[in-house]
Amino acid sequence: DYILLNDNSRAPCCTEQRETGLELLKEVYVPWFIETGAIPIFMVTHAYWASRRDMSGLTDIPTFMSLTYEGYREYAEMVGKLLPPEQKPRLAPVGLAFLLIWEENLNMWENLIHQDEIHLTPSGTYLEGLIVYGTIYGHLPNPKIVL
């Protein structure tokens, strides 16, 4: 069994919010993981750049993504120290895939992000699902049976 979780997109990248997340994971989620025996999968959220939102301290999409990934790595490391080895947390690198697309094909990236400049379109959600699938099973689904 697996438990898929993610934090508010900006929380893992900001020190104070990250500390709150770590505390919540330790006090609330780790006991739940132990009780269920499930493997936690942290879905590393994508970075974004919203023109109508205060983006102070994040500099740009690559910086935002780097800080976010660092936060999720810290979450997984802390949780992993408190769980038995067979429940070692995994990272679903959704944000890293989105960053690669942003770097190599901005038009495609824009098709993955909703017009609010934050949330995902159905295509972005589909990509997110493929990455989670790959994280769980170690390969992508058979293209003949996937939409």
List the uncertain runs: none
Rg calculated over all Cα atoms: 16 Å
Approximately how much beta-strand content do the residues carry? Answer: 5-15%
Strand order of the largest sheet: 1-2-3
The helix/strand series, from N terminus to C terminus, equals: EHEHEHHH
The largest pleated sheet is described as: 3 strands, parallel
The helix/strand class is mainly alpha
Enumerate how many helices there are, as a single number: 5
Mean of all residue-level pLDDT scores: 95
What's the end-to-end separation, in Å?
Answer: 25 Å
Please tally the β strands and state the result.
Answer: 3
Large-scale geometry: flat
Helix content: 40-55%
What does it look like?
- The protein has five helices and three strands; from the N terminus they run E-H-E-H-E-H-H-H.
- It is mostly helical and 147 residues long.
- The model has no long low-confidence stretch (mean pLDDT 95).
- 53% of the residues lie in helices and 8% in strands.
- Helix 1 runs parallel beside helix 2 and helix 3 (94-104) packs across helix 4 (106-112).
- A three-stranded parallel β-sheet has the order 1-2-3, sandwiched between helices.
